Amino acid sequence: MRPKEFAALVSLLEDPDQEVYKSISNKLVTEGIPLVPLLEQAWEVSDSDILQSRVEDILHKIQLNTAKRNLADWVATGCSDLLAGAVYVAQYQYPDIEYEVVESYIDKLKQKVWMELNESLTALEKVKVLNHILFASCGFAGNADNFFAPQNHFINQLIETKKGGPVLISIFYSLVAQRLGLPIYPVSLPRNFLVAYKNRYGHTAGGGEVEQSILFYINPFNQGSVLARKDIEQFLSQNKIPPKEEYFLPCTNCSAISQLLGSLLLSFQKLGQTSKIDDLKLLLDILHKQ
Q: Which phi and psi (to 5°) does residue 162 adopt?
């Protein structure tokens, strides 16, 4: 859209005729993400409450529509890229986030860890190296002080503040690990979220043989502390949660992002932001169709 056309449309946003506003709004929303910086600038320079309110509404529709479309496409292609799912969640709130920028940051972290690894290390020793780089050297940590902050669920905010919630920091941990060739995957545990280090040569079967497929579990929210199956069993027992085998196994990428959105929804519920809650229910519905 040309600057003059955009300026003309914005000038009409204060028109009292609802049909005029609806027509202009639909056109701007259809243009999508490229207009976001211009709309934000229009909001900043205006002193009109009506214009600002309508710009906010248009921005909200653009961001929601983009998130819905991106997640639907992600599901349609098999949810194969976990990082893409996390970026799409963040773009709901921060539409200017670029996948390539986040990926580049993760690749740099990978390189730092890779410099300290060698093939003679055991799985546990490799995890200790990864923990040292992420938590001791780079300063990543679970945000226990502000647990329900929405920012705990956006990967760009995790990179900027080094703080995140259990789901996001576990997803981030597994993304770095997998780029190093380490078989570490998210585990969707009720009231918690962990990652599991898989045994490359093991297998999963019934009758409690899951131990043969998982070497150990890791809690990235707690500085990468290492856990055994019995620790998870104890956690479930203490919280009166009937154990299911799925609680001990890696979850799908779709399930991990569903948990991220569900945790974000809970944060907005704590803040009483009704419109955000409705948005996230729509996004979760898209993932639940997988």
A: 65, 15
